[in-house]
């Protein structure tokens, strides 16, 4: 039996005992039966009313529970819909009170989740609004009164993080631009005029709107200030160049120039004003010294004429250059001409530099060609001859390459400019060909002069005999070079009755032929007894020392009784001319050796018949 039934049975038992007890009391008191019935009816009604009241209260409680359950269910459904959650499944087999408690607990949890989400949404929306005010951007697309989902809150949080990063980037960019603007304004001595410029320079950085439009406006302002600065620098630089040019033309003392040095570097507003004032002062001074300034400009014009390879006709075309009427108009014409020449030179600088390089190489080539005809070049020491030959060979190779390169550049320039590129009034290639042709004619002329001189010398030798011509540096035949040892093998050779002296030099071989008289004549200590060498001069002491043994044999042998007769001038032979080039020198040397080899006297053929 359940406890509630036991309690109900006990309640009925108590009620019966109470009625019995009341009945006993009434009997003892002697209350009549009708009053007993009346009193018993009152007890019954009282108990009934009490029970009815209790039942009514419990019925009311039941109704409240049912109402609460329904209300909680409705609220839970709404919260689930707002929070976008699935509905909760009700448990079966539980009492109404437990059901109401479970539903109410779930509703309280959903309300807390909704409150948390709404508070987080409000906080994020406040941050987003602040960022939107700073960055001047659109707010995030979410209603502030709707319950956000976790995904929406996460997306909003990420959006705010991106906005914060963008704010930091724009703020850094703003600070950098503001710094540049401040520097430029200080350099330009510019005072902020517009409200935007004042907001940038004067207001607090945290209150500045970092919108894209403002950042773009800042960049535009920086560009404008940069352009103004560049314009100022260009104007200042132009003034400086003009001032420097006028200083040079007017020959301003160095002390005055040094006093103005501060304005020759910076380009601020005060520097620009000072430069403008100086230009004006120099211009006024220039008008007072027109002749001197004009002469200075003419000197510059002459320099650029040379740089641009102007011909005499091109120079004559500028008639004011030769005018003696020094006026301001003449000075202006000279100023315009020098500017035109400078621009012309700058536009074609690469071509002019190439032509100048060719001119320098050609000049060096002509110098080397001239040195090649100098006879003294064979007596050089230190290998200069080899260096010159090597340099000349390199120029022979580099000049055609340079001409080819310049031809390609000139052709491209002429096709682009649609006019001819002139050097000294004629086309460059024509000018080059003329230079080569003049060089060829000069070489041919020199060659003809050498042949004429050689022919004349040959005729003189045939008429008067060959005279021994000593080389310029005679000491090369006897002296020795420390770095190069010279080998001399028995300079005195005795072949029967013929004695041949051979002197070997670096560049010249001289063969001296001396014939002996086969008739036995007494020895003499006079001049006739001495051995002549090289046209009657005494032999070199070093060579005498080397030939003591041969001289002793000549004195003591049966042949020594013969008197050594000096050869006549007709029997002496030497190289009459010096070659102009190394190849001609070798060719002449070979022919000379072949002739001199026949100058050795044979006693059987060269003796007198008597």
From TrEMBL:
The keyword Transferase does not apply. It comes from the Eukaryota. The keyword Coiled coil applies. It comes from Sander lucioperca (Pike-perch). GO terms for biological process: mitotic spindle midzone assembly. Keywords: Coiled coil. GO terms for cellular component: cytoplasm; mitotic spindle midzone. GO terms for molecular function: microtubule binding. This is Protein regulator of cytokinesis 1b. Residues 104-131, 431-461 form a coiled coil.
């Amino acid at each position: 039996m359940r406890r509630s039934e036991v309690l109900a049975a006990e309640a009925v038992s108590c009620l019966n005992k109470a009625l019995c007890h009341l009945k006993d009391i009434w009997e003892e008191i002697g209350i009549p039966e009708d009053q007993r019935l009346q009193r018993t009816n009152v007890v019954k009604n009282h108990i009934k009313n009490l029970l009815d009241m209790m039942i009514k209260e419990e019925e009311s409680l039941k109704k409240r529970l049912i109402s609460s359950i329904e209300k909680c269910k409705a609220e839970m459904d709404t919260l689930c819909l707002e929070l976008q959650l699935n509905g909760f499944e009700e448990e079966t087999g539980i009492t109404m009170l437990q059901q109401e408690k479970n539903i109410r607990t779930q509703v309280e949890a959903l309300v807390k989740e909704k409150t948390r989400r709404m508070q987080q949404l409000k906080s994020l929306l406040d941050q987003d609004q602040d960022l939107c005010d700073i960055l001047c951007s659109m707010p995030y697309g979410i209603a502030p009164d709707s319950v956000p989902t976790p995904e929406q809150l996460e997306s909003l949080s990420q959006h705010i993080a991106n906005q914060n990063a963008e704010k930091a980037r724009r703020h850094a960019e703003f600070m950098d631009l503001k710094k540049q603007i401040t520097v430029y304004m200080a350099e330009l001595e510019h005072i902020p005029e517009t409200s935007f410029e004042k907001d940038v320079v004067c207001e607090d950085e945290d209150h500045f709107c970092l919108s894209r439009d403002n950042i773009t406006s800042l960049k535009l302002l920086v560009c404008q200030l940069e352009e103004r600065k560049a314009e100022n620098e260009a104007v200042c630089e132009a003034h400086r160049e003009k001032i420097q040019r006028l200083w040079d033309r007017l020959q301003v003392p160095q002390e005055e120039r040094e006093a103005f040095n501060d304005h020759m570097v910076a380009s601020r507003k005060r520097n620009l004003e000072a430069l403008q004032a100086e230009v004006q002062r120099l211009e006024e001074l220039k008008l007072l010294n027109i002749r001197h300034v004009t002469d200075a400009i003419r000197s510059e014009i002459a320099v650029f004429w040379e740089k641009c390879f102007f011909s005499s006709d091109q120079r004559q075309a500028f008639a004011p250059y030769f005018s003696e009427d020094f006026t301001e108009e003449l000075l202006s014409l000279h100023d315009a001409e020098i500017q035109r020449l400078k621009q012309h030179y700058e536009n074609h600088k690469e071509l002019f530099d190439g032509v100048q390089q060719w001119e320098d190489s050609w000049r060096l080539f002509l110098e080397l060609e001239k040195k090649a005809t100098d006879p003294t070049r064979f007596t050089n020491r230190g290998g200069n001859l080899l260096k010159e030959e090597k340099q000349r060979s390199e120029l022979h190779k580099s000049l055609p390459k340079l001409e080819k390169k310049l031809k390609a550049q000139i052709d491209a320039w002429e096709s682009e400019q649609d006019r001819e590129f002139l050097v000294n009034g004629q086309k460059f290639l024509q000018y080059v060909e003329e230079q080569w042709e003049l060089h060829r004619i000069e070489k041919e002329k020199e060659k003809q002069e050498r042949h004429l001189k050689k022919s004349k010398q040959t005729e003189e030798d045939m008429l008067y005999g060959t005279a021994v011509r000593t080389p310029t540096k005679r000491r090369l035949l006897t002296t020795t070079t420390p770095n190069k040892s010279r080998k001399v093998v028995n300079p005195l050779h005795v072949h029967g009755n013929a004695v041949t002296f051979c002197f070997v030099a670096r560049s010249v071989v001289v063969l001296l032929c001396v014939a002996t008289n086969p008739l036995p004549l007494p020895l003499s200590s006079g001049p006739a007894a001495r051995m002549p060498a090289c046209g009657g001069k005494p032999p070199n002491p070093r060579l005498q020392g080397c030939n003591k043994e041969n001289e002793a044999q000549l004195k003591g042998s049966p042949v020594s009784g013969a008197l050594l007769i000096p050869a006549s001038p007709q029997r002496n032979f030497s190289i009459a001319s010096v070659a102009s080039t190394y190849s001609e020198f070798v060719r002449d040397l070979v022919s000379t050796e072949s002739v001199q080899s026949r100058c050795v006297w044979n006693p059987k053929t060269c003796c007198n018949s008597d």
